[in-house]
Amino acid sequence: MAAETSVPASEEPLIQVEKFNYAYGDHQVLFDVDLNMHSKDVLALIGPSGCGKSTLIRSINRINDLVESARVVSGSIKIDGVDLYASNVDVINLRRNVGMVFQKYNPFPRSIFENAVYGLRVAGIKDRHDLEEAAERSLKSAALWDEVKDRLHEMATGLSGGQQQRLCIARAIALQPRILLMDEPCAALDPIATARIEELILQLRGQYTFVIVTHNMEQAKRIADRTAFFYKGKLIEEDDTMTIFNHPNDPLTESYITGRLA
Amino acid sequence: MKAPASTSRPSLGSLLLKKQQRPFLGIDKQRAIRLFFASNSSVAIIVLVLIMLFLLREGMDFLPTYRHELETYRRAGLEFCDIINRPLAEHQALCSKLRRAASASLNTLTHTARTRRDAAYELMREVEEETRLQRAILSDALAQIPAASPEKLTRLRQEMRAATTLAAARLQTPAALTPEEGRRLQRELTLLNPEVPELPPLLAALSADYIRVDREAHATFKPLVDAVEAFEAAPDALHTLLDAMKKHARETKAHVTELHGSGKEPSHSKPVDFDLSIVPLTSGITELTAKVEEYTLLAQKTADTMPAAAGTPQAVALLAEMRARLPDHLAAMRQAAASLPAWSHSKPVSYLEVAIAFFLGDAWITNSSWQDFFGFVPLLTGSVLIALIAVLIATPFSVIAAIYTNQFASEREQEFIKPVIEFIQAIPSVVLGFIGISLLGDAIKGVSEWGWLQWIPSFPIQERLNMFNAACLLALMAVPTMYSLAEDALNNVPRSYLDASDALGATKLQTVFRVIVPAAKSGIAAAVLLGMGRVIGETMVVLLVAGNRIAIPDFSAGPGVVFQPAHTLTGIIAQELGEVSRGSAHWQALFMVGIVLFLISLLVNWCARAFVRRFELAKS
Question: Average of pLDDT values for B262-289?
C-alpha cells in the first residue's frame, strides 16, 4: 500500500510500522498497519473518528501503556531499527526523543518557565543557566518568546488557548526530540490560533519528523508532505499529500476527502 | 390504536391559557411544593442561627458576672494578698528541687541498707499474705471472750505454724540479701505468729542497720540537709502575716457573697464598707514589706551558705538550677512588695481587664475557697497543641496512603485499602479512649523507659495519660477524613497532566511528586484543615486520655512538652458543665469556652473552604 516512489532508495525510513495490530482488551482497533515514515517529513494522518489514528501515534511513544487494557496483538513499530515493544527498550528515553502534543492543550498549573523546562528538570538538569537557555531557545522556536518573555514566572494557565498550545509545543521541543507527535493539535483552537500553529509547524519542518493527526483536510494539504488515510483501523492509502488529495488510488479515500463518506 | 378525533381536541388558544388549579392552603400547588422543599433546606440554617443565639445569650453574660467577681476580689483585698502570694509559689518549686537534691544525696549512702531492709520486709509480707486466713482465725480465737479452749488454741497454733513453714519454704532469696541471710530469714519467718509482737531478729537487725546508716548519712550531708530546712523555714514569718491578711480578706469576701447570696438586695443588713474593711491590709504594707525583705535576706543567706557539692551529679545539677533561679525569684518578691503601695482596692475593673483575664488568663481555677479564675489560655494551649500533634502525625499517614492508593495501588489493593481506612471512622471515640487508657498509655510509657531511647527529651515519661497519647488516637480518628479528601483531591487532577508528564519522559515517581501532588496541594491542604477541624472538636478521647491537668504545658521541656498532661476546651465543658449550677459565673465561663470553640471550628472550616475554592479555580 505504502508508496515509496518519492523516497530516495538510499534512505532508510525512520519509523517502520509493520503488520501492527493493536487492541484495547478484546476490542481491536488497528489491523495489520504497514507504514513507513521518513526522517524530517511531515506526515498527516486523516480519517473519520475512531479509525485508530490516535491509537497509532500514541503507540509510537508508548503513552498508551498507561491504558490498562491496551496491548499489542502482533506486529511491531521500529524506530531506527529498534522494536519499541521489545523488553529492553527504555521507555523514558523513548519519550524524551519522541515528543508529543495533545489535542487539548495541557500545560501544568505552574509558571511558564517551569512548563518549558519540565522535561529537562525530570531528566535531571539542575543548572539554572542551562535551564534558562533551553527555555529561551524552545520558546523562541515555538514563536512564543516575544509574547511571554516578560512574564515567564506567571502561571501558564493564564495564557490564551493558542499560547498554551504553543507552550506545550515548546515544552516538547525543549528536549530536542527527533520526532514530534501531534494529536489534533488545533482541535481546541480558533482559526487564528490554528493558523499560528500551522505556521509554526511549517517553520519547524526540516528540524523534526512530524506525525500529525488531523480532521481538517485543508490543514493536511497545507502542512503535510505525505498523508495517510485510515478507515476502521486499517491503513487504506499513504502517499504524497498532493497525490492523495488530487488522485487518490482508493475509492474510499476519494469519498472521504470529498465528504461523501459518513 | 388511539384515534386522534379532531372533534375532541381542544382549541390551541385554550391550551395556551393557565389551567385553573385547586389551591392548596390558599397557594397553588407548584408553589406549595417549592415552599416545602425550601423550608426543609432552611431548617439547617435556622437551627444554626438558634444555636449561635443560645450560645451567645448564655456566654455573653459571663463578662459582667466575671467583672463583678473580679471586683469583689479586688475590693475585699484578695488581690492584695495575691500580689505577694503569687511570686511566693516559686519558693515551693525551689524547695522541692532542694529536697530532691538532698534525698538523692542521702540515697547514695542509704540505698543498700534500705534495699536490704525492704527486701526482708517484702519476704515477711509475702508470708503474712500467704497465711492471712490462719492468722485471722488464730487472732480471733485469742481475742475471744470467754477464751477458746486450750485444745482449740493448740490446734490453731499448729495450723498457723504449718502454714508459715509452707509459705517460708516457698520464698526466694532476693538479690539484696546473701543466701545465708535468706535461709536465716526463712527459718525465722516460720515462727511468724500473731502472738509474737517482735519482728524476726534479722529483720530487726536490718531495720536498725538502716536507721544507723540513715543517721550517718544525715551527718555526712549535714550542711545540705540544714540548708534545705533553713530554706523551707525562710518564709515562715511572711506566711504567718500573709495568712492573717488572707483570712481577713476571705472573711470580707464571704460577707459580700452572703449578702448577695440571699437573693434580693437586703435592706436590713448594711452593705459591706470596703473602705473600712481594707484598712487592716493596707495598714500592714510596711510590715509586709519588711517581712518580704527578711525572707529574701534569709533565702539569699541560705543559698550562699549552701554547699555546692552533693551526692550525685543530678543533685549537683538541681542545686545549681535552684541557685540560678533564686535571684529572679527574690527580685520578683521585692518588686511585688514595692508595688503594694500603688495598689488600690477602689480602682474599678474595666471590661478590658476582664477580657484580658479571660482570654489571656493563665489559670483556670474553680471551686476554690480563695478565688475562682477563668483563664482560657491553659485550655487553648492544650487543645491547640493536641490538635497540632495529631495533625502532624495524621498528615503524612493519610496523604501518603492517599497517594499510594490513588497512583500506585492496583485495583484490588484499592478495593481493600479504601474501605478499611474509612472503617476507622466507625470506631466509637469512647472505645478509642479506652484503648488509649489501657493499651497505648502503657505502651508509650513502656517504650519511654527503653535505654536506647533516652536521648528523646523528657524520656522516661511520668504520665501515662498525656497529650501525645491523646494526639495519637485523634490522629487515628482524623486519618479517614484526611485520607478520603486527599484522595478526592488527587483524583480530581486532570488526566491530561499525567499524559503530558509521561510524554515528556518523566518516571512515575516524578509525575506523582512534580505534577500530581502539586496540582492537588490545595485540596490536600483543605483535607488537612478539615482533619484538624475534626480533631479540635473531638471530646471523648481527650477527656479520657489527655490527662486533664489544667495548666499551661511547660514549654521549657522543649519537644518533650508533648508528653505532659493537659486539659482541653472540649474536655472542660464535658467535664464541668454537668456539675455547675445554672447561671453561675462558672456556667457562663463554660459557655464562653463553647463560643470560642465554635469560632475556632468555624475559622478552620472557612479556611478549608477557601483552599477548596482555590483548588477548584485551578482545575478549571
Answer: 73
Given CB atoms, is A106 within the 8 Å cutoff of chain B? yes
Measured CA to CA, the distance from residue A245 to residue B2 in angstroms comes to 55
Question: Residue B97 and residue B187: Cα distance in Å, rounded?
Answer: 44
Nearest CA in chain A to B519: A109
Interface contact B501-A108, CB threshold 8 A: yes
Asked, for residue A262, whether it belongs to a domain, the answer is no
Q: Please give the interface size between A and B, counted as residue pairs whose CB atoms are below 8 Å apart.
A: 66
Q: Which residues of chain A have a CB within 8 Å of the CB of B499?
A: 63, 66, 102, 106
- Total domains in chain A come to 1
Q: Given this model, what pLDDT does residue B104 score?
A: 87
Give, in degrees to the nearest 5, the angle at Cα B560 between B555 and B565.
75
Q: Is residue A243 part of a domain?
A: yes
Chain A residue with CA closest to B499: the answer is A63
Phi then psi for residue A188, to 5 deg, are -100, 10
Contacts of B505 in chain A (CB under 8 A): 92-93, 95-96, 119, 122-123, 175
- CATH code of the domain covering residue A157: 3.40.50.300
Query: Is 0.80 topped by the overall pTM?
Result: no
CA angle B86, B87, B92 (to 5 degrees): 95
Give domain status of residue A231, yes or no: yes
Residue B27's pLDDT is 74
Q: A122 and B510: CB-CB below 8 Å? A: yes
Asked if ipTM goes beyond 0.90, one says no
Question: Which tens digits make up the pLDDT trace of B115-160?
Answer: 999 988 888 888 888 888 888 888 888 888 877 788 888 888 888 8
B505/A102 CB distance under 8 A: no
| Rounded distance between C-alpha atoms, residue B408 and residue A48, angstroms | 35
- Does the residue A169 lie in any domain? yes
User: At a CB cut-off of 8 Å and minimum separation 6, what does B1 contact?
Assistant: none
The residue of A122, A175, A179 whose CB has the most chain B CBs within 10 angstroms, and thus the best one to mutate to test that interface, is: A122
**pLDDT tens column, B316-326:** 888 888 888 88
Give the range of the structural domain holding residue A179, as residue numbers without chain letter.
Answer: 2-257
Ramachandran bin of B335, using left for φ above 0, alpha for ψ from -120 to 50, beta for the remaining angles: alpha
Phi, psi of B305 (to 5 degrees): -85, -10
Nearest to A102 among B499, B510, B515 (CB): B499
- Closest-CA residue to B430 (of B264, B505, B542, B302): B542
| Alpha carbons B389 and B17: distance in angstroms, whole number | 68
Q: Which of A92, A103, A165 to probe by mutation at the B interface, max B CB count within 10 Å?
A: A92
Q: What is d(CA B45, CA B55) in angstroms, rounded to the nearest whole number?
A: 15
Over residues B459-469, mean pLDDT: 87
